[in-house]
């Protein structure tokens, strides 16, 4: 008998429920024996560690053991009504022309998706189908990047049900952005989606994933995306987190970027009660140029944590990280960014900047940028600031006749613009600035109502 | 009634009384110069008129076109026709100059109950004004004042003044740091706008600018008070003799 078992920490209700959910679902989850073994190993990690909590350095500011009071039951396949409601999803992107792949409560819905006239070199399927068919695309890829010690990722691996599996063949250029639309229907359920995207050598693609759901429903999302970017490939990835007001959202991007490639990543975070956005990016090949940016807009009591780990393994790569957060009311924004430069990664050029704009005295920003450098011929830097709107600038705008709310909106848009401008697709850029404008409009209307009250 | 009537204006900043009872009346159609040594309160007066935070009066009144200026927010003052050309115009990264100008002009028009300008109407107007003032169109394509030289920033202030067509323009040391060519452009911008309906208050340390913008009235501000008022000859006198006597007079 193992003596250590006696000192196991008491399980929380959520941990117990997750263990029960896994035990019940295990036999029905898709995949063969090898996949089942992956699931079991991942679950064992969770069983050992429990939910991440504040004494785990990487989760210091987002204590899931406290924030996740209960684990919701696993989602069941969506009914006709849920699918009908999901038709309106993805509106956030305005009229940007995309190939939509729609997932309702974590399940792929072909009726709502566009699988017609696939471009040459593009292959799309769902994870559930790929697992059921033992799709060879999965071998050597699934679980290769989303592994390691992170418990949120482990839970995703243990319980992954569906997601997108996309392969862009070598040298193919896919003009239409691929839009993975993840929609929560209306029930307080938990979904575990896992997607796999492989962009082969010299290929070009843009991938958008959006996450949304109804306000007032405390559903839970754990989404992970493994992204392989081949040598000389060029990939844009935009993640939009716009969940409902009570939602708990944990998502992970785990990406490996090849040599001579271009990668342009962006996360737009605005909706959800508790949000944890994890970005794990590694540079495997030499002379790649990458930008990883993000904009976060929070109000009320929202909590959003962006945790970024950039791993420079190969030589001569350049990475730029810019994260901006606008925090109103009692919102809490967290940015943890770590750049690691491995011993072989000479001539690495990496710069990380994070800035938080506090619109209220009760809002809180935690910025933790870190550099770990094990090579000697590198250029690396980071900076972090947090502060209120510049009163001098606001006065200058007001002295020109611009009312205070509009002056603030202009300055906030300019502040976020620096990050959003990094998105190469003009339509997506404009659509997101439109979302920012709406957010500001709501804010100034709420402000006006308070003044009248 | 004068367009601007300042009566017994007192302003305390950081516990120090900077303005100690300023009286000033400016009629429409006039150009007033306010001269004075450093630290006499010239810029404070400009900021109080524009409505800067922490520049609130402790005593006195200011009426602008008959209205109580202190009951109006800075943006309301601008819409009512008050313009301050800043001594140190601010850089606003990320805000395009054109967006800034259009937002400001339309906000003013809206508040005055006038129709907002459409984008083509606005572009036509701003291009006309820029051309008249010899402002490079390239400047309009950049973010507000970002990367501008000192002279370009001042020129941008004059461009805004010409675009907004205020009833009263206060120029706070717009001449400081300008070479003679830039000075001429600024003066030319002011002179083009001179009209019987419009007034200017030109704050300056040096007489030089007043060779180009000829004032109707010259005031000397020293130790927070207007200590002498005269015509344009007074500026020449100050240039010749300096401010020493006013500094002593105020101390005595």
Q: How is this fold's topology laid out?
A:
The complex is a heterodimer of chains A (453) and B (252).
Chain A (H helix, E strand, L loop, with lengths): L12 H13 L7 H17 L14 H4 L12 H7 L12 E6 L2 E2 L13 E5 H6 L18 H9 L4 E5 L9 E6 L6 E10 L4 E9 L7 E10 L4 E9 L5 E10 L4 E10 L2 E10 L5 E10 L4 E10 L5 E10 L4 E10 L7 E10 L5 E10 L5 E10 L2 H8 L5 H17 L5 H27 L1
Parallel strand pairs in A: 1-5, 4-6, 5-7, 6-8, 7-9, 8-10, 9-11, 10-12, 11-13, 12-14, 13-15, 14-16, 15-17, 16-18, 17-19
Antiparallel strand pairs in A: 1-2, 3-4
Chain B lengths: L3 E10 L2 E11 L4 E5 L6 H9 L6 E8 L2 E2 L5 H6 L2 E4 L6 E5 H15 L7 H15 L3 H4 L2 E2 L5 H15 L3 E5 L7 H14 L5 E6 L12 E6 L2 E6 L1 H10 L2 H8 L1
Parallel strand pairs in B: 3-10, 3-11, 6-9, 9-10
Antiparallel strand pairs in B: 1-2, 1-4, 4-5, 7-8, 11-12
Helix pairs in contact in B: 4-6, 6-7
Write up this protein.
- The complex is a heterodimer of chains A (453) and B (252).
- With 453 residues, chain A is α/β, with parallel strands linked by helices.
- Chain A folds into 2 domains: 11-285, no CATH class; 390-453, no CATH class.
- Chain A is built from 9 helices and 19 strands.
- Chain A has a 10-stranded mixed β-sheet with strand order 2-1-5-7-9-11-13-15-17-19, with helices on one face. A 9-stranded mixed β-sheet of chain A has the order 3-4-6-8-10-12-14-16-18.
- In chain A, a hairpin with a 2-residue loop joins strand 1 (99-104) and strand 2 (107-108).
- Chain B has 252 residues and is of the alpha/beta class.
- Chain B has a domain at 4-90 and 166-251: Rossmann fold (3-Layer(aba) Sandwich).
- Helix content of chain B is 38%, strand content 28%.
- Chain B is built from 9 helices and 12 strands.
- Chain B has a 6-stranded mixed β-sheet, with helices on both faces. Chain B has a 4-stranded antiparallel β-sheet with strand order 2-1-4-5, covered by helices on one side.
- Chain B starts with a strand and ends with a helix.
- The relative contact order of chain B is 0.18.
- The mean pLDDT of chain B is 92.
- The interface between A and B is medium-sized, with 22 and 29 residues.
């Amino acid at each position: 008998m193992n003596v250590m078992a006696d000192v196991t920490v008491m399980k929380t209700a959520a941990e117990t429920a997750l263990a029960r959910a896994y035990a019940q679902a295990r036999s029905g989850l898709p995949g063969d024996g090898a996949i089942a073994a992956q699931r079991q190993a991942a679950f064992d990690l969770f069983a050992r560690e429990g939910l991440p909590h504040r004494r785990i350095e990487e989760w210091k500011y987002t204590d899931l053991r406290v924030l996740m009071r209960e684990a919701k039951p696993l989602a069941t396949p969506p009914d006709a009504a849920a699918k009908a409601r999901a038709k309106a999803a993805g509106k956030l992107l305005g009229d940007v022309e995309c190939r939509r792949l729609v997932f309702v409560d974590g399940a792929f819905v072909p009726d709502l998706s566009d699988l017609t006239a696939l471009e040459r070199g593009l292959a799309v399927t769902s994870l559930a189908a790929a697992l059921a068919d033992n799709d060879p695309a999965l071998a050597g890829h699934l679980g290769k990047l989303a592994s390691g010690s992170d418990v949120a990722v482990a839970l995703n691996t243990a319980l992954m049900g569906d997601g997108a599996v996309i392969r862009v063949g070598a040298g193919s250029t896919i003009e239409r952005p691929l839009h993975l639309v993840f929609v929560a229907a209306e029930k307080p359920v938990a979904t575990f989606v896992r997607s796999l995207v492989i962009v082969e050598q010299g290929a070009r693609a843009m991938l958008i994933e959006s996450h949304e759901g109804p306000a007032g429903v405390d559903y839970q999302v754990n989404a992970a995306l493994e992204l392989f970017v081949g040598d000389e490939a060029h990939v844009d990835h935009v993640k939009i987190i716009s969940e409902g007001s009570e939602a708990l959202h944990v998502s992970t991007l785990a990406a490996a970027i090849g040599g001579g490639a271009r990668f342009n990543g962006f996360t737009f975070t605005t909706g959800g009660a508790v949000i944890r956005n994890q970005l794990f990016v590694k540079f495997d090949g030499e002379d790649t140029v990458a930008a990883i940016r993000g904009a976060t807009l929070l109000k009320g009591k929202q909590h959003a944590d962006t945790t970024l780990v950039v791993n420079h393994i190969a030589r001569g790569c350049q990475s730029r990280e810019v994260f901006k957060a606008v925090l109103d009311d009692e919102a809490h924004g967290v940015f943890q960014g770590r750049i690691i430069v491995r011993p072989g990664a000479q001539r690495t050029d990496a710069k990380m900047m994070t800035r938080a704009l506090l619109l209220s005295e009760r809002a809180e920003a935690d910025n933790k940028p870190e550099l770990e450098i094990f090579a000697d011929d590198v250029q690396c830097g980071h900076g972090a600031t947090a502060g209120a709107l510049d009163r001098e600038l606001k006065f200058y705008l007001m002295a020109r006749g611009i009312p205070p709310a509009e002056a603030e909106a202009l300055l906030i848009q300019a502040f976020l613009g620096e990050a959003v401008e990094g998105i190469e697709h003009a339509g997506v850029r404009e659509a997101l600035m439109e979302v920012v404008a709406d957010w500001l409009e709501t804010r100034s209307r709420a402000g006006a109502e308070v003044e009248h009250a | 009634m004068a367009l601007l009537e300042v009566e017994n204006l007192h302003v305390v900043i950081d516990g120090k009384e900077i303005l100690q009872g300023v009286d000033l009346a400016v009629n429409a159609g006039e150009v007033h110069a306010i001269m004075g040594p450093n630290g006499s309160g010239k810029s404070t007066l400009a900021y109080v008129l524009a409505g800067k935070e922490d520049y609130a009066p402790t005593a006195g009144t200011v009426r602008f076109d008959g209205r109580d200026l202190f009951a109006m927010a800075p943006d309301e003052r601008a819409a009512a026709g008050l313009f301050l050309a800043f001594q140190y115009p601010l850089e606003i990264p990320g805000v395009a100059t054109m967006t800034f100008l259009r937002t400001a002009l339309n906000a003013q028009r809206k508040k005055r109950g006038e129709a907002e300008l459409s984008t083509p109407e606005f572009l036509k107007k701003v291009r006309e004004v820029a051309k008249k003032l010899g402002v490079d169109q390239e400047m309009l394509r950049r973010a507000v004042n970002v990367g501008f030289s000192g002279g370009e920033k001042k020129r941008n202030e004059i461009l805004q003044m010409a675009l907004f067509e205020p009833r009263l323009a206060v120029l706070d040391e717009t001449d400081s740091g300008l070479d003679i060519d830039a000075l001429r452009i600024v003066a030319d911008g002011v002179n083009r706008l001179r009209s019987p309906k419009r007034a200017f208050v030109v704050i300056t340390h040096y007489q030089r600018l007043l060779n180009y913008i000829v004032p109707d009235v010259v005031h000397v501000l020293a130790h927070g008070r207007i200590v002498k008022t005269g015509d344009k000859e007074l500026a020449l006198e100050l240039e010749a003799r300096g401010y020493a006597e006013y500094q002593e007079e105020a101390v005595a």
